[in-house]
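A favour, since you know our structure tokens better than I do. What I am after is a single protein written out in full by you. Could you add the entry underneath, on a fresh line?


***
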Amino acid sequence: MTVQVGDLAAFRRRALRQSGVTLDPAVLDHSRATIAAVRRRGDAAVLGEVRRFDRREARVADLWVDARALRAAARRCPRALREAIDHAYTSIAAFHRRQRPRAVTWNGRGFRTSLVPQPLARVGGCVPRGAASYPSTVLMVGVPASLAGVRELVLASPMPRAGSLDPALAYAATKVGAIGLYRAGGAAAVAALAYGTQTVVRVDKIVGPGNAHTAAAKWLVSADVGIDSLAGPSELVIVASADADAAAIALDLGAQAEHGAGAFAALLCDDDAVLSAVGLAIGGIEAPPGAIGLYRVPSIDAAIDAAAEAA
């Protein structure tokens, strides 16, 4: 794997180039055409995209996995992984439980004004798939929906080339109470969630990250369905001193860099030994060439300033 190595000036140049990333016109055109096709032809159009990008042998029947099939697949999830997902679920729920809005009432002269939060009926959660599957994303979109009282959560995630169903993804989906998994990604999945198909009923809001086509599609459908934000590409800057844990840094860098094209994960450090140790630790990580950068800085204060500028 190719790793970018440089100094503080090199990091600033890379961060400046990264800040110019926007929705590519070609990506917008493809996403716009895909959305139109899905609105006309439903599952058949989605299947065409799945066969083109994910699994050539896919059939329409392969697109939908109901809650019962998710529970069956979840039973194959290794115990240690189930325990990790359970721990993450508890932590994420503890945070979002504090976010739940409360009804607010104000009594004026002769009138009363109230703000009464109501949960959405149906939410679609996009779960990307790069070099790995992301049960963590299932939790991050599903736990807030569950705590808010959303009645139905539908997940959408690209179909693996082998057509298999990842047990960890299935286990996380059952934890958050998803009613099913639509096995498609990108603009096709967004369009299916936004407008519905023969298999999927349209949702009230689409949440979750994805690739450039997912982001473009969410922007294009946002006049017709709610969205959370335009997420991506994945970006991470770590500031580390001499006492940092090189193995933990490498895992954090890899977790972001593996997301695919456009990802940028950088380490700013003032210690040569830590930089060398991280460089060795990331050798076996799957990531696009140049997605990870290691940068020697003159001081931690300088690194903090550069990270703030990049943000």
